[in-house]
Structures are given as structure tokens and as C-alpha cells.
Amino acid sequence: MNDNQRLEALVETVRRFVALDFDGAAVVGPDGDTMDALAAGINMLAEEVQAGHDDLERQIAERTVALTDAVSELEAQRDDLSLLAAVVESTTDAVITLDGVGLITSWNSAAQQTYGYSARELLGESATRLGTAGNTPAEMPGFLQRTAGTRFESPHLHKDGTTFPASVMIARLRGSTQTSTAYAMIIRDITETKQNEVLAQRVAEELAAHAADRKAMALHDALTGLGNRNLLKDRLEHALARSQWSAVTVLMIDLDDFKAVNDSVGHVGGDEVLVNVARVLSEEIRRTDTVARARSIESTVVRMGGDEFIVLLESAGEPEGAGAVAQRILDSLGRPALIAGKLIELDASIGIAVKDDPAMSAETLLARADAAMYAAKSDGKARYRFFDSQVQEQAQERAVIISELRRAICGGQLRLLYQPKVDAASGRMVGVEALVRWAHPIRGLLGPDAFIPLAEASNCIVALDDWVLLAACRQQRTWEDRGLHLQLAINVSGRSLPSGDLVDRVRAAIAATGILPQRLEIEITETAAVAQGDGIRLTLNSLRAMGITIAIDDFGMGHSALSRLQDFPVDCLKIDRFFVAPLQNDTIGHSSIAAAMLAMAHCLDLSVVAEGVETVEQLETLRTLGCETVQGFLLSRPVPPEDIEALVRLPLVLPAASPRLDLSGARPQDRLVHSLLAELQRLTGFDSTYFAKIDRRAQAQRVLSARNTAALQVPEGVILPWSDGTYRAAMERGISHEGDVPDVFGRALVEHPDAICSWAGVNTRNRSDEIVGMLCGGSARHLDLGSSALRVMTSFADLIGQALNGDPVPRSGDEFASDRDDLASVRDRAAVVRDREATGRDELSRQQDVQGGGVELARGSQRRADAAADRTHAGSDRREAAGDREEAAHQRAEAAEDRLASAEAARRAVVSLELMTDAFHSLDEGWNITYLNPQCERILGRSRAGLLGKNLWEEFPEAVNGRFYEEYHRAVNEGVNVRFTEYYEPLGRRLEVRAYPLTNGLAVYFLDVSHGADG
Amino acid sequence: MTERPGDDYHLYELDSALLRIDYNANVDVGEREARFVLREISRSWSPRPIFVDIRKLRSADRRARKVFASQASVSHVALFVDSPLSRMLANVFLTVAVPERPTRMFTDEAEALAWLRQW
Fold first, then answer.
1. What is the pLDDT of residue B56?
2. Min CA distance, A46 vs chain B (Å)?
3. What is the ipTM of this complex?
4. Does the distance separating the beta carbons of B62 and A47 come in below 8 Å?
5. Which residues, 6+ apart, have CB-to-CB distance to A129 below 8 Å?
6. N or C: which end of chain A has fewer CB within 10 A?
7. Contact across the interface for A37 and B65, Cβ inside 8 Å
8. What is the Cα–Cα distance from A111 to A96, expressed in whole angstroms?
9. The predicted structure's pLDDT at residue A933
10. What pLDDT was estimated at residue A830?
11. Who wins on pLDDT, B66 or A869?
12. What's the CA gap between A551 and A490, in Å, rounded?
């Protein structure tokens, strides 16, 4: 290659290098000549250019990254600024920025709201227009410098010229240059705060005044404004301290029979009476002061509590003066006063005690007045009585008796007699009431009137009640050991009820004696129940939860409204002898009150015992009125326990019962419905069940019948509007089930605040397949409401519908007119098709023959339930086909015939044993299995066919050695219901068993409770 | 007299104060070779002036030039050249790489040694 060629090659290489193509260097020859030098120089320059280029690229990349980061940071700062601007714009405080001389540079929305100016109006204007502390524009720079970083309050100007108090904070802003100065002002309108401060000041002043009132109230009775016990103590101590030169007299005033007055006018009226008494006492004492001013008399009137008042007289006068004051008080109280629309005349008993001993204490003086007052009551009330030696003797005697009574309780001087309670129809003794007597070593056998009031006036009554409880339970144990199974009633004083340990004491007595709580009845007087009110509800509920029944004693004497009985958890009413005595003459007029009590009790599902039955006429009338149980001298006086056995063995021969008075045509149906609801509850586990009638024209439903046993309380008679669309839709769907109680009832009906309720409903239809009612069940706990429960409800809905349609239950309007017409038609058809019913009647007869086992009844019930379901589903088809209607009429006639034949048979039929969630089997007298339901088959793991007719103990030999054998025999032999839980090893299950004796065998329900499982 | 002969060069003491390195003909020096020779120098001698004969050297790439320019194992450098190519190499080294130590280009050996000896 010559030099020209080498040069061209070099030029080409340079061109490539210029184009930044550095691949391939210029060739440097071995000669080291000029061309080689040129090539080497070009190569070295290219290296430098390439390095510089690469370095530049690297720097560009680095700076690109840095630039990207910077942009990101700027964007973030811009977002922050946007957010800050949004915050400033959205804040309720006015935020204004100013330049260094106080010209406004920004103005947010709140500023516009606060001052009334728009931003356009004020931007560039001086902040002095806002009334900032009265500065001029020239003063603003200095003002801003001085106040920067501070917070202060000052009046500011609104655009409309009004001023408002403002809280102002000024902050210096850091500008982009050291020399630039800007400020931010944050202004808050504190008008409301200032108003609140004024209000708070006023409230504080009122509270201070109230505190002063409370201090005054500590010494005064809130109701009457009189002094209270504290004031009396203070005044009495002062009076006694200076009594060397004055007489101190205490008048203790207790209104007579105030409780009766209170009941007649209500609690509000009762309060009004007490206020009126306070006014009378105050007026009389003022008059006394006026009359006796010359003798330096000082008087104080206080209310000690309830209907008890005390007048403290301090004077130089004679004690007879106190008698005059007392008489004036009695006269004034006796004047009729109009209270709650009634003319009320009050009587009072007044005890007067005069300090006659310089060392007499306040306690002694008050005790003497109390004793004198008690003596005035004993003397016949409505009078006053000075404390004197006789009063002292009486008080001492009372103290002695109370002391003796205390010893008597511990010393074995008390006796229990037992008065039989007798079934009014059969004369069979069904129970006894324990009655206490005091075998006093000197005074002889004392009746309760001689010592119970004293025991109640002291603290003896609780110990007395305990003694009676334990002694009676021991006697019950003795009777039970001798084969006597009686319901034992024990009276408990009202004083024992509020004490929370009554339940524990009863439980201890039961545990100590081993009696069945189900055979124990606690009697409390109506007066005590009403007096204690809600306070005893918990106690009674706890006792009932143990299985003990509660009876209201002396019913009718407590002056309580009958409706109040619903508030108490009771099982039985004992009608007082006062209402039984007039039944001597068997006229409807004399018996009307007792009849009303009985009707009311039965409506409340309470049993009734009539007390004080002394004549055959009374007994006859009570039986006529439907009274189940009677007690009185006619039947037996209270007798020693050893005589009870003889009375049981020899049933009383009672006069033949008269035909029962048909008290109400509605009752049988209502009672049947109620029984059905109860049965439904038992089978499904619902706590409440009810049947509601739907009135589409009125767009409402009315709860016709309800049975409540737990938290969900559905009131009977309540009319519910169709305001709850969900509920209405659920009802019209047919069978429905919801997790929660429908809103239509409102949570007010659920008493327990934490109750979680389940609800299920199934509708009932009339002959035209229209929905006419609904059967519902609700529970305070979530139930597993499966198809079985709904099938049971379907059967019950059908039967309840039949029960209500089948008899002339009194109803409002023509709600059921079509039903009645339809039923009449059905009955007519029943006569026509009677021959065709022969088969059905034979079936019914067979069912009745095997009632003890129940299997056929249950199957019949199932068939009827299936038929009802078929009727429901095929309703529209039936309306179109006459032949089908005839068949439907035939079926309804058959059902009506069943119903009319025997209400009891119908009730038993609806047990629907086949549908039960409990396992059930029945046994005959020879322990042969006569029936078992599918649940029983499942739990036992044995087929029905393989067990029916077999001997229980042979099929389940392991049970012979367990508790089953023992308890089943006890149930049959003693005629008692038994309940126990036992692990049955062959099945590997723990069973909760309930066994009920039948006429010819035993009915047994059980649940698999092995793992809390629903058997 | 200490010598460090290599494949591409001959390194030795001219006297106790001077070093000399003579590159062989048509040698191409890269970074690796540059570092190698400098390491040889620093191992054997304290920093001192060096006479570098690059008359026969064909090339020294950019990285080699940067290594030589920043070296500290010698105190003064005299580049001995004669051909246009060696002059080009020296000139680029002196003007583009800009050595940190005093460095001059000579075409006369005696003059170069004289310059080195004055330090």
C-alpha cells in the first residue's frame, strides 16, 4: 500500500470516527514513519473522543436520573402544596396571607364566610379593613412584627359592619429570599365560644345554687318540704341540751291504714295525701307557736319516712298542752280533703312522750313516743296516747313476747299443723298448707295472730320462716317416705322476700330433706307481693326456676288491681275467705266477685284455691264457678301431721257436684288454643307462641292468643299494623322462617336487652284458601328451625284454625262470618256423607283404643297433617272441581267430627310424636314398648319393627343396672314425673330423660346431650 | 546494577540516581503492561528520574497513557524519541494525558540524561 492509499484509508478512518464509529483503528505500520505517526495520532485522538463521548453519555445518564428524582420531588412538593391549599381552603378558620406591610395576598373560603368579603374584594387591600386591633396601614408592619408567633383575641369587622370576637394567630412565613417578609393570619370567629362561656358561667352559678339546695335537702324531705330524720336529730339534741329550763315533747304521728288510702288514690294521689298531711301539721304547729309565743315555744315538724311524722315541741308549758296539739292534729286530718278526685278522711295514731328526766336521751324519748303510738294503735287507732306506765308495761310485754318468741323458735315450742287442700270435684286431698302455732309454756297454744305481727315487727320473722320451712320440708320427707305424695304449701312473710338469700334458704331446706321442689309451694300474701313490687320478682322467678310453685295468699285483700297479677310470676291464687263467706247464699250477685276472680285467674292460666270454705253452700257455689281446689273448716281444720295420712286414705265425701255454669262460650276454644300453643312450645322449644288473626280490610293483624314463658313477650289483643313490609311479605309467602323477630313487634317486646331472637311463622288459610291468620313462635335464643319444626307448626296451625273456626268464639265484626258459614255447610254435608264416614270413624275408634301407645294417634295426626298440606297446595284446584270440593268437605267434616268428639283426643292427636325433635317411646304396664318415634329409633340405633312389643329390660339389659330402671319404677310406683341425665354405655350417649306415668304405663322423652347435641 | 528485563522492555539502573527503560520494537502497551512495569519500578527503587526510550514502541492505548501519567514511582521522566511515530506518541502523552510528574520529550540522549541528572 502506497502512501496515497494509506492516506485515503486514514481519511476513511477519520470519517468513521467523526460518525462516532470507533470499531477498527487505523493501521500503524512497523516503520514508524509519518503515516504511521498520523495513524497512531488519529487512533489516540479517537480513543480520547470515544472516552469523552462515553463520559458524556454517563454524565447525561446520571443527570437524567438526578433530574427525574428532582422532578418527582417537585411533583411531591406540588401535591403537598395542593393538599395544604385544600386544607387551608376547607378549614373553618379564616386563613389570610399578608405581605410585609400588611396587604392581603390570599384569602380562603372560610375568610369569605367569616368576613363576608370575596377574595376579589380584599386581595391587595390592607388587613386594617378587618379591624385588626385598630391599627392604621402605616402601623401594620410594626404590628405584624410584634404579634408574629402569638395568639390573641380581638374584635373584628364583618362586611356588614358588625363586629365579632375573634381568636387570631399570626405567623411569619419564610420567603424565598432572606429579605422578603410575609405573614399568615388564622382567624376564628369565637362568638359561640364566648356565648358558651357565658352559659357555662351561668350553669356553674346554678350548680352552686343547686349544691346549696342539696345541702338543704340533706335536712329536708323532698316530697313534703318538711324536715327529715337528720333535722330531727339535730333539733332534738339541741332541745335536750337546753332542756334544763324548758320541756321537750315528741309527738309521733302515724297515719292509720294509709296503705288502703294509697291504693285507692294511687301512688301519685298518695304523695298528694302526704303533702296535705305535712301542710296540716305545719299549720297546726304554727298556730301552736302563735298561741304559745309568750311561753317561748319552739316547734319542729319532720317526716320520718312513709306515713310517719314527728312533731317536736319545746316549751315551758305543761304536757297537757301537747294533748291539745295532738287533738287538733287529729281533728284537722279528719276533715275531708279532695285528693285525686276523691274525698279522703284521714285518721292517725299519735304517741306522745315528754322528757321528764334530765338525763333522758333522744333515743329514749323517741322510743317512748313510738311505744305510745303503738299503744294508740292497739287501743283502736284514731287517737293519741301519752307514754305512761301502762304503755311502758305494754311495751315491755311486747319486748318480753318477742324475746320469748326468739327462744321459742330455737327451743322447740313451735308446732306445725296442716290444713288439707281438696279437689272440689272429687274430694281427693291434693295438698296441705303448713300453719304455725306456738305452744307457749304458760299461755298455751297461741294462734298466728298472737305472735306473727310481733315477729314481723321485729327481726324474728325471718328466723320463724326458716324454722317453718325446714320443719315442713322434713314432714314432707316423712310423708313421702310413707308413700304420701302431697303438694306442700308454706307461708313466707313479706319481710323475708326482699332478702336475696330466701332462694338459698329454700334450696338448702330442699337439699337437706331431699324433697321434690315440684311438690313445694310458697305462699305469699297479696299485700306483701304488692308492697314489695318489682323487688320480689327475681326471688319468685328463681323459686319457680327450681320447680317450686308460687301462690298468692289472701287474694283480694291487697287492694291491687287484678291486672297487676300478670306482673307477678305466680301459679296459683288463693281467694280470701272474705270473698268466700258471701257465697253462703247461692245467688249470682254474691258469687259475682268470686266468679270474676276465678275467670280472671283462669284467663291468666292460674289455678285457684278458695280459702275459708265452711259451708256446703259455699262449696257448691265454688264448684259451680269452676273452682278447682277448696280449703276450709268444712273440709278439715288444721290437723297434726299424723292425722293427714288418715285423711288421705279416706277421701272426703263431698256433696254431688251441680252442673257446671257455662261461664263463657269462648272459653273451651280459647283454652284449647292455649293448650295447643303450649304443646307447640314444648315440641319446638319456642319460648313464646301466638296466633294472630289477619284482617286485610283493616290492614292489620290482631294477636288472638299468646303464651309467653320467656323474654319475648307477645301481648294478647295487640293490633299490629302492616307497617313492616318484610313481615307481610314473609307471611304471604306461606311457611316462612326468619332469623330475627319481625320489626313489627318492636324491640320493646323483648324484655331481655341481650336476647337474640328467632322467629318462625306459618300462615293459616280459610276455605277459600285465603290467608286468615298466622301461627308464630319466637325464642330468646337462636334455634335450629329445621323442616321438622315447621311441619309441627303446620299441623298446629291447621288444628288451631279448626278450633277457632269450629266454635262460636266471640269475635269482632264479621271477620269470621265466611268461616262460620263454611263450617255450617260442612256440618250439613257431614250428615249427608255420614255413611261414607264409617271408615273414618272406625279409624278414630282404633286410634282411641291405642291411646296409651299413641302410635296410631300419631300416624293419624300425620295423615291429617299431610291431608292439610295437600289441601293447602291443591286449594285452587279444589275450587274448580266440584268432586274435589265434595271430598274436601268430607275431610273437613271428618276433622270436625274428631274435634267435636273429644277436645282431649284432638289435643293428644296433635302431639305429632312422629315429628318431634325429642326422642319418645311409651311402655305398657309390663314394660313392653308400645311406641317409639323416629328420633328414638335414631338414637337407640334400633328399628321400630324390631322393638315394638318387646320388653324394655330384655332389649336393653344394661339399663337394668343403671338409673333408668330405678327412676322408671319410681315414676310408675309413685305416680311422679322424673327427670334425670344418665350415660348409657352401650350407645355411648349421655341422655337427658323425662318420664311421665300414664294410666297404664309410662311415657318417656329423651334427648341426646352427649356433646350438647340436639337429640 | 539492578536489572528487570521483561518481554517487551529492558529496565535497569543507569547509575544509582537514574533508571532507564528501553521498549522493544513494535510493542503495543496496554493498561496491564503499564501497571506491570510501574509495579516493577516501585518494588525495586525509590522514586527517581527515568529515561524512557520509546523510539521503537508502536502504541500505548489511552488507559496505558493515563496510568503512566498518574504514576508516582518515578520523579521525572525523559521521553527519548526519534521517529515521527514516537514523537506522535510522546506529544499525545504530554498534551492529552498530561502527566503529573515533570516529563519532557528529547531527541538527544545526552541532553535528556543531563536534564534528568539535574534533579
1. 93
2. 10
3. 0.87
4. yes
5. A122, A157
6. N
7. no
8. 7
9. 78
10. 33
11. B66
12. 10
Provide the number of CB pairs (under 8 Å) joining chain A to chain B.
Answer: 53
C-alpha cell read off for A79: 401535591
Inter-residue contact A1008 to A991 (CB < 8 Å):
yes
One-letter amino acid at A662 equals D
**Which residues on chain B are in Cβ contact (under 8 Å) with A41?**
88, 91-92
Q: What is the mean pLDDT of each run of 10 residues along chain A (1015 residues)?
A: 86 88 86 88 90 91 93 89 82 89 91 92 90 79 88 90 90 69 90 86 81 73 86 85 76 86 77 90 77 59 89 69 86 86 86 85 89 87 89 84 88 90 83 92 83 82 91 94 90 77 90 93 82 74 91 70 67 85 60 73 83 84 86 84 76 39 42 68 71 74 74 68 62 58 48 55 73 75 57 72 49 32 37 35 36 33 39 39 50 47 34 59 86 80 84 85 85 84 82 80 80 41
Q: Which three cell numbers stand for residue A577?
A: 275467705
Q: How far is A48 from chain B (nearest CA, A)?
A: 7
> Rounded to the nearest 5 degrees, what angle is found at the Cα of A528, between the Cα atoms of A527 and A534?
115
Answer for the pair A923, A1004: CB distance below 8 angstroms, yes or no: yes
Q: Is the distance from CB of A322 to CB of A251 less than 8 angstroms?
A: yes
| Residue B84 Cα, gap to closest chain A Cα (Å) | 5
Residue type (1 letter), A357: D
Residue A660 C-alpha cell reads as: 257446671
Q: Report DSSP state, residue B95.
A: I
Grid cell for residue A266: 294511687
CA distance B17 to chain A (A): 31
> What SS3 state is found at B81?
coil
CA pair distance A778, A629, nearest whole angstrom: 34
Q: Is residue B52 a contact partner of residue B79, using CB atoms and an 8 Å limit?
A: yes
Locus of grid cell 291464687: A573
Residue A639 is classified by DSSP as B
Residues in contact with A509: Cβ distance below 8 Å, sequence separation at least 6, in sequence order: A469, A470, A473
The answer to whether B24 and B50 are in contact (CB under 8 A) is no
- Say if strands A520-525 and A549-555 run parallel, antiparallel, or are unpaired: parallel
Q: Please tell me the pTM assigned to this model.
A: 0.39
Grid coordinates belonging to A819:
268461616
Phi, psi of A98 (to 5 degrees): -130, 150
* Phi, psi dihedral angles at A178 (to 5 degrees): -65, -30
Closest partner residue to A40 among B55, B88, B96, by Cβ?
A: B88
Note the pLDDT of residue A891: 57
Q: How far apart are CA A342 and CA A336, in angstroms?
A: 9
* Residue A284 one-letter amino acid: E
d(CA A9, CA A53): 23
Q: Is the CB of B83 less than 8 angstroms away from the CB of A44?
A: no
Q: Helix or strand or coil: residue A761? A: strand
pLDDT of residue A234: 85
**Residue A201 CB neighbours (<10 A):** 10
What's the whole-number mean pLDDT along residues B51-65? 93
pLDDT of residue A723: 59
Closest residue in B to A36 (Cα–Cα): B85
